[in-house]
Amino acid sequence: MVDLSKYKALFLSESLEHLQSMNECFLKLERGEKEEDTIATAFRNAHSIKGMSASMGYNQIRDLAHSMEDLLDQLRQKQRELDKEIVEVFFQAVDRIEKMLKEVEQDKEFDPAWEKLTERIQGLVKKKPTTQIPESAPTKKSLPKSEKKTKAEGIELSVLISPSADSPSVRALILLKRLEELGKIINAVPSREEIKQGKMVKAEQGYPVKIFMEGSYQEEQLNRVLSGVSEIAQFEFKQARLKAEPEKEPTQIETAQKAQEGEHAISPLPQTVRVKTQLLDDFINSLGEMILIKGEMEELYRKISHSGLRQGLDRMERLIREFHDQVMSARLMPIELLVQRLPRLVRDLAREEGKEVEIEILGKEIELDRALIEKLPDPLVHIIRNSVSHGIEPPEKREKLGKNRVGRIIINAVREHDLVLLSIADDGQGIDPKKIAHRALDKGLISKEQAEGINMEQAINLLFMPGFSTAEKVGMLSGRGVGMDVVKSVVEGMGGMVSVFSELGKGTTITLHLPQTVAIVNVLLISLANEIFAIPISRIMRSVEVYPYQVRKSQNQEYYVERQELIPLLYFHKLLDLKAPENHRFPLNALLVEGKKKKMALVVDELKGQEQAFIRPLGRPLERIPGLGGVTMLGDGRIVFVLDLMSLF
Amino acid sequence: MVIRVLIADDALFMRNMIKEVFSGDDFQVVGEAANGVEAVEKYKQLKPDITTMDIVMPLKSGIEAVREIVKFDKTARIIMCSALGQESLVMEAIEAGARDYIVKPFKPEKVLEVVKRVIKAEDG
Question: Measured between CB atoms, which of A7, A62, A256 is closest to B63?
Fold first, then answer.
């Protein structure tokens, strides 16, 4: 017996892909995009799920998928027209199967809801409006009353198909085909037509089939042919006189063929392999080890200074970097995977809220590290929910405002250096600072004085405070308590940031700034209070030397002046609560960095050089400390903290 | 003599399961195809002894693939893999030239039995 458990993961992931494809098909059909190919694709998806679940023994999923397949088949054959009820029931079925797959994953029992849904679909299938292909009456053509009575020599073969045959009629057809290779079949009972219509009679010992063949045959011939057909319980033959009978081949057969002959171009299948994320993580870890070892060898080189060693080290560095890039690119996945479920979500949410919303997704091909893709669905869903629930106005209100009745959400992904900017923009009512302030006041998050005269920037900050939720009603799909604060912490936890732009009455855009890669990073080593720290270079605009004449003081804040620009000067050791060194001597070493909105000049003690560092994440509790982004090991074995500038400002 | 097998099914999952059935010493899986077009190409390339063919596949149906393969090689031994309730399609495949069929979920013993018979019935 095949061990099915190891196929479970593959079964689940493939089934989900088929479900996703079906979702897209149904969305298209609902929008009125009548394509034959869409129905054919959905049909194929249902069929695949049916087959796979049958193989795994999940007969309930099989049955539900089978009912969908039947209904889709009717649509495909143009035996009925698509209507709202059918589309709705398809969506329900997709959702139900998705839930059942989760139940499979968790080894839970199936929620019985699937049964009613299956019955409902089967009911629809039976209630087919018009039968285009009239049910042909069984043609008992065994013996025509006509006068075609030419007698011929031949044999009568009596075959008994095994009672346990899966498909006795298919078996019978196979039998006929094999015998046709031997000689001419004059007649059969049940006839070929009847066999094709599945009209086999079951007797006690099996399914009897009589075949009349022209000519004479030797026993061995018949034995040979019949032993090549399985599920034959027994057979015998005798000489006979036959009545000739024109065989009529049925020409109308339901074929899957027409549906498959798609005229649209489908891109060739890429040569791909499924790789577990864990394996890629292991690759990165191994690479990290290699970098450390190389670092140790660099230290040795400083002592031994052998030219061959130098060359070897340089080549290794190149190889490691290449390998790293290759693994990182294997870790990259297109954002498409992240956003593909959103159209369906928007549709369901909009319906629930009585709003009309459409979503457009740009930049689907932009890639992100899969570790990030895994963490982003919840924040994204939350942002979309906010948009549909609180952003987009009801259709009538929109019309009154002179807006398009249908609200729009645009998701856009763009690459900028080593960052990916993922923005979610809606054309709804925008953020109303007064409303936000009111809410915050109610929740006791701010005082009355603070609530007055609140501006957009402050309102946005309030949104991100934990405990703030603007859900006035908890709908079926909204308001589950994932606040914007969680969105912020998830995004910042991956080294990114969230920015919000909103115009009252016009709409809101939320942008996630995400690092494209996560593991090996170029860092700048700096010393601060005799300690060494590493800062990812991507955050640093450049380093500068600050002379006294470039420093200005204003209201207790020092500024670094460059080309008439006043840049706040901050002492890094103060930010990290480290002991100040003896008086800073000019020129000061400062790093120009860009925070969320402003530039800053961070004064450090010394710049110690650049390094390619593999950054290991800190575990608890260290990861909670603002400013710490990880840890890395230098070539000489010292462990240094990697600073996370984003969380300091 | 090792029996060379070509597996055609659009689900990786199914192909893996079928491969496992043919994991014994008597068999060698020489190729896999994920759609009807690939199935025909690979057949022409590999000339396997046995081909398992899924009925519903993208780009070209299993039935059409059978038709083309049999046209190319009338001694081709193709076994259809079907799910329950596809009798008419299986029959169409048989008419197109497939030799036999197995139904999902299939028992490995059943598959092997069908294969053995199909192989045995080589044209003289």
Answer: A256
